[in-house]
Amino acid sequence: MEIARKFKNMFSTVPMLGWLLGIFTAVLIEYYWGYDYISYYLGLPKIPVLFGTLIMLKDPMMIPGVIGYDLIVYGIPILLIAKASNFFTNPVAAFLEKTPLWLSAMIHLIFFYGVLHLWAGINDYRVLVVKLTLISIILTISINVINGYQGEFSCSHPGFMAIGAYVSSIITLYFFVADKTFGAAVLSPALGPWLFPFALLAGGIAASLGSLLVAIPSFRTRGDYLAIISLAFMFIIKSAIENLNVIGGARGMGGQPDYAPLPIIFIWTMLCIWVVHNFVTSIMGKALNAVRDDEAASESMTVKTRKTKMTAFMFGAFWAGIAGGLFAHVLAYINPGMFSINRLAEILAMVYFGGLNSIIGSIVGAVTINVLGEALRPLELFKWIIIPLILILVMIFRPYGLISFKEINAKRLLRAKHKREQGA
Amino acid sequence: MKKLACLVVVAFAFAMVFSPSAFSARKTIIKIGINAPMTGDIPKVGEGSKYAAMLWLEDIEKAGGLEVGGKKYEVELVIEDNESKAESAVKANTKMITQDDVLAIIGPQSSKQAVPAGEVANKYKTVMISPWSTNPATTLDRPYVFRGCFLDPFQGPVIANFITDEFGFTKAAVLYDVASDYPKGLAEVFKAAWEKKHGAGSVVAYQSFTTKDTDFSSQLTQIVRSGAEVLFTPQYYNEVPLIVRQAKELGWKGPIVGSDSWGSAETVELCGEACYGLYFSSHYAAAGAKGATKAFIDRYTDNYGYIPDDVAALTWDALRLAQQAIQDAGKLTGKIEKDRAAVKDALTNIKNFSGITGNMTFTPEGDPIKCAVIVKINDSGEYEFYKSSCP
User: Are strands B71-81 and B66-68 parallel, antiparallel or unpaired?
Assistant: First the structure.
């Protein structure tokens, strides 16, 4: 405990910029020396892809090598550089603090993306995992608007995702790709990547219109009834697509062009975080919380409850549609079976694990469940015992999720950390 | 602070010293990836694939490695679980190709995973052989993707012809799962083939249900009433027993015919005597098998305690095909991209490969031309060879 406190004290003066710089150095080390020197001398077959968890679980003999690798490449450089660069990262952070917040946040984000891109670029498997994790973040945040901020229990998220995925796929396949279902491309394929955001938006809008179908009949009820109606909606969407042979039916729809590289998905994720953050901290967001806590009371305090709930529901569905569109273009194949009860369980696990009513919680939940799901892959069946067990423990000790009812404070997160702020 | 530094150094020293393979040189190992559903909806399929692969590896290890161009190489299997999910199959393929540097991939088995996973394999120019996927889209326009089984457009007419020749019926009923890719596709093909033979309207009942349904009484009642003489149901082992029993309870007297999805060892186990005497089309028949097929079946039964189903046999063939292709490639350069391309070229050129599920020659699409087998479930619940039908 003593060590942990000392440790924490020692690094309390490192600003976000310092950490980023540390990670950047670590990634550079991995990039230049990871394969040829470090992993070679430690007897590892290749650069351990997810911090070595995969090889460790497959071959316990590799554990020392992996620990050594993680320490040399990540642990030591990050800590050293973060601490040693204090003398100039703090003044830079202090300078950025004086600039408008958006500019400072933007600079940090660009730096962060650069590091992420470099790290993921070492191996395409990492790229895929990062892509799917970012999409999960959008999904989790969007369901948090409904299940967290609005306090309902909606189960139709996979349905919204399916609508978004299918609508945007139909648009890109119809306009930009020559395929069997829709024939030759209507527009020049070169325009595709530029018009892709519109296809995504169309998917999102279609999803939010679809959500009206749930919202109109069901918002006269609350709680369990909404859960049942929204669950039914999910199955309706799934069966509808299965029976629509024009779009492939149960066989699914494939061949979506690769319009969703990592930077595009990153931009959409950041956009989602920013927009949802603004939404939930706006008057509408406060009204939403009021409706959740006591609908009658907020009604009497002039909150238009029906309109508030509808807007939030459509807003959540919109982002689920966007996530669905991105998902379809990452996998380049979708079928209705993907958007079923399994997906729902996954989304709900992420949001309730991470924490209700909190964007940062959603990010933590999505990243944890995704990375854990990948890292424990070699355990096969035991993976499905470990992850639920963790979920149960979280539910027992933190019923609202790991980090609930907390908002991101970008200013606090990015500020310089001088000695004076260390406290006692 | 000092303590911390000490701790780090000690941990580090430990790591270096006890790392067993520290400072060892990297050598060329032939890695074969297996992308199978070890968990999820159909774990039995994953288990069969894994066991077949382990038997194959045993053979290779007994021989002291795989000989390519006069040099013996160590072979390693990379078995990845695709959880019976499409995105997981894509992740598994990406991981095996970019991280494990596999030379070829066997799997995924179901079409819903094989279609997207094939996209990945083709993108990274790695040979993928799906032993069991029957969807034409799996190999379509993908030079690096192959399959080990015949396709639905072939299987449908085979069954239609068999029923016509065997029983002389003219009115058929179909019961299938509309939500699942394979049954739906095959039901359509069968309907088209049947109607071509006996005229429009000869499929007198064309009934569907949805995955995970367990009560088929309303569909079956309509089928019984429609006056159909034979029922065709291309379902999986979890549904077949329910359908067969419920049909008999509702007074269905005619034969029930199935497709290769019946071939799992579980079908008879769950169905019992109700299924005796029924027919289905398949890739191979276990009872009464001869030669290499029998040897494989016996070995598998000895090792794992049950008769291998068609997935295991097809996986075995796919592995043997991959092995043949690697050996035909001549020599391994150690440069994985080059070797993968060489394996692909070798695989396209394989002629009349004799597998335990029949002889195979690949079309330019990567689909094999091979025979189908009509299997009868005999009175002791074994899958008995009845007839074979070649293209």
Answer: antiparallel
Of residues B80, B85, B210, nearest to A239 (C-beta)? B210
Q: Is B24 on the interface with A (CB under 8 A)?
A: yes
Per-residue pLDDT of chain B (391 residues; tens, 9 = 90+): 566 666 666 665 565 555 544 445 567 889 999 999 988 878 888 999 999 999 999 999 998 888 888 888 899 999 999 888 888 999 999 999 998 889 999 989 888 899 999 999 999 999 999 998 888 888 888 999 999 888 888 888 999 999 999 898 999 999 999 888 788 889 999 999 999 989 888 999 999 998 888 899 999 999 999 989 999 999 988 889 999 999 999 999 899 999 988 887 788 888 888 889 899 998 888 877 788 889 999 999 999 998 888 889 999 999 999 999 999 888 888 788 899 999 999 999 888 888 888 888 888 888 888 888 899 998 888 888 888 888 7
d(CA B131, CA B108): 8
Tell me which CATH code domain B152-282 carries.
Answer: 3.40.50.2300
d(CA B368, CA B352): 10
Q: Which residues contact A39 (CB under 8 A, 6 or more apart)?
A: A45, A46, A47, A48, A69
Comparing CB atoms, the residue among A45, A61, A381 nearest residue B26 is A45
Contacts of B152 in chain A (CB under 8 A): none
Which 146-165 residues of chain B touch chain A by CB within 8 A?
none
Inter-chain residue contact B180 with A342, CB threshold 8 Å? no
Query: CB A3 to CB B3 under 8 A?
Result: yes
Domain ranges of chain B: 29-150+290-370, 152-282
Q: How many angstroms away from the CA of B320 is the closest CA of chain A?
A: 25
Partner residue facing A335 (CB), from B20, B39, B86? B86
CB within 8 Å: B91 and A374: yes
Listed residue (B268, B277, B274, B289) closest to B373, CA to CA: B289
Of A132, A332, A337, the CB nearest to B119: A332
Query: A223 in helix, strand or coil?
Result: coil
Range B153-188 burial, b when 16+ CB lie within 10 A, else e: bbbbbbbbebbbeeeebbbbbbbbbbbbbbbbbbbb
CATH placement of domain B29-150+290-370:
3.40.50.2300
Indicate the DSSP class of residue A148.
Answer: I
> Which residues of chain A make contact with B141, given a CB cutoff of 8 A?
none
Same fold, B29-150+290-370 and B152-282: yes
d(CA B360, CA A151): 59
Which domains, and CATH codes, for chain A? 2-99 (no CATH), 124-411 (1.10.3470)
Measure the CA–CA gap between A327 and A346, rounded to whole angstroms. 15
Residue of B nearest to A373 (CA): B88
Closest CA to A345 of A384, A302, A294, A314: A384
Are B33 and B100 in contact by the 8 Å Cβ rule? The answer is: yes
Say whether residue B124 is in contact with chain A using an 8 A CB cutoff. yes
Note whether A243 contacts B178, CB cutoff 8 Å. yes
Short-list B93, B62, B83, B73, CA closest to B30 = B73
